[in-house]
Amino acid sequence: MKRSVLTRYRVMAFATAVMLLVLCTCMVFKYGFDKGADLTFVVSQVHGVLFMIYLVFAFDLSSKARWPFGKMLWVMLSGTIPLAAFFVERTVRSEVEPLITDRLATADA
């Protein structure tokens, strides 16, 4: 597996997780203080697009790492639970890094 597959996943995991936290904050302001309805709409749209991209990259990573369906589903759903994507990303990175084969690593051997 190439390092770029893991890098794409990690970038989208962080972006999706951060946008989900921003969305949760916007929802508190919208429903708790009756402020920021327009901002909440924009943030929810951006998070939705980022989440769809995240799903594509998570599926790509899971298919190349040959994970079982349950693990793939958990990684994909972690983008919907606030703070979960940060912890899942760390676990995924530690499990996938040994599977990475770069040209430089194979040329030195």
Task: Give an overview of the whole structure.
The chain has 109 residues and is mainly α. Helix content is 81%, strand content 0%. The longest helix has 31 residues. It is elongated. The model has no long low-confidence stretch (mean pLDDT 86).
Quickly describe the structure:
The chain is mainly α and 109 residues long. It is 81% helix and 0% strand. The protein has helices spanning 3-33, 37-65, 69-77, 84-96, 103-108.
Q: Tell me the quaternary state.
A: single chain
- Overall structural class, as computed from helix and strand content, comes to mainly alpha
- The tally of beta strands, per DSSP, is 0
| N-C termini distance | 17 Å
In DSSP terms (H or I, runs of 4 or more residues), the helix count works out at 5
Topology order in helix (H) and strand (E) letters = HHHHH
Low-confidence stretches: none
For the sheet with most strands, the description reads: none
Helix content: over 70%
- What value does the Rg take, in angstroms? 17 Å
- Tell me what portion of residues adopts beta-strand conformation: under 5%
* Mass-distribution shape: elongated
- The mean pLDDT is 86
Task: Show the helix and strand layout.
Layout: H1 3-33, H2 37-65, H3 69-77, H4 84-96, H5 103-108
Helix pairs in contact: 1-2, 1-4, 2-3
Defining traits:
mainly alpha, 109 residues
